[in-house]
Amino acid sequence: MIDFHNVTVSFFGDKKALNNISFKIKRGEFVYITGKSGAGKSTLLRLIYADLKPTSGVVLIAKKNLNYITESSIPYLRRNIGVIFQDFKLLEDYTVYENILIALEIFYLEKKDMENKIIPLLHKLDIYSKRNTLVKKLSGGEKQRVAIARALINEPIIVLADEPTGNLDPERAENTIKLLQDIARNGSTVIVATHDKHLIEKFPARTITLENGKIISDIEII
Ligand SMILES: Nc1ncnc2c1ncn2[C@@H]1O[C@H](COP(=O)(O)OP(=O)(O)OP(=O)(O)O)[C@@H](O)[C@H]1O
């Protein structure tokens, strides 16, 4: 599903955000990307999302070489990728419900059918009671849960999460990881960038560790 071949990303000069990394992730896998701040985790996710091209090497997503992807075909790729950004990227002046509705790709659905998709997800993420609240009035943890709901609404093939538990209390953080692991069990490929070692220990899964842009370990949990 995701295949990195000798991928390097240089932003300027000799400093490499990613330095010749290779790995493969299968469909339905749940993988942690971990490492200290600045190790290259977000850069790796940005490559998968075609927000960035490698300076050298190849990134294949479902056998498609992203070096050759055209600007016009990027939205098609992204339609299949749910992303939970570190800074949420929500529409602050819209309600929780509207944020998710806007993300819903299937506009031809009846209002009732759209509600039937959105409302169970709001309950699952414990934000149903905030559905009519403007996002700008939410706490950081609530915004994060809206961002997660928005990423999942279209049942994406790939889910990318950059520190999805960063603003959450421990119980909510654990529930979020459980939810993301369920999503992987249902067939989506889920990649979680985190530096939370406690969560990884509690919910073990394959863990790729980056240090200064290099993979220093890739441990499978069976
Ligand atoms: N747009 C950019 N321009 C220049 N340098 C960048 C850019 N984005 C990232 N970098 C550099 O690349 C390296 C890797 O950054 P990246 O954001 O991928 O790390 P990270 O592991 O996600 O860190 P964090 O946990 O703090 O989010 C860092 O040294 C960072 O300063």
UniProtKB/TrEMBL annotation:
Major location (coarse): membrane
Superkingdom of this protein's organism: Bacteria
UniProt keyword annotations, A-Z: ATP-binding, Cell cycle, Cell division, Cell membrane, Membrane, Nucleotide-binding
Gene3D superfamilies per the UniProt record, alphabetical: P-loop containing nucleotide triphosphate hydrolases (3.40.50.300)
UniProt key word Protein biosynthesis: no
GO biological process, one term: cell division
A cellular component annotation (GO) from this entry: plasma membrane
Signal peptide limits: none
A Pfam family the protein falls into: ABC_tran
Places the protein is found: Cell membrane
GO MF entries: ATP binding; ATP hydrolysis activity; transmembrane transporter activity
The UniProt record lists the keyword ATP-binding: yes
Membrane topology note: Peripheral membrane protein
Residue ranges annotated for the ABC transporter domain, each copy included: 2-221
Main function: Part of the ABC transporter FtsEX involved in cellular division. Important for assembly or stability of the septal ring.
Assembly notes: Homodimer. Forms a membrane-associated complex with FtsX.
NCBIfam families: FtsE (TIGR02673)
Protein name: Cell division ATP-binding protein FtsE
Originating species: Deferribacter desulfuricans (strain DSM 14783 / JCM 11476 / NBRC 101012 / SSM1)
Lineage: Bacteria, Pseudomonadati, Deferribacterota, Deferribacteres, Deferribacterales
Gene: ftsE
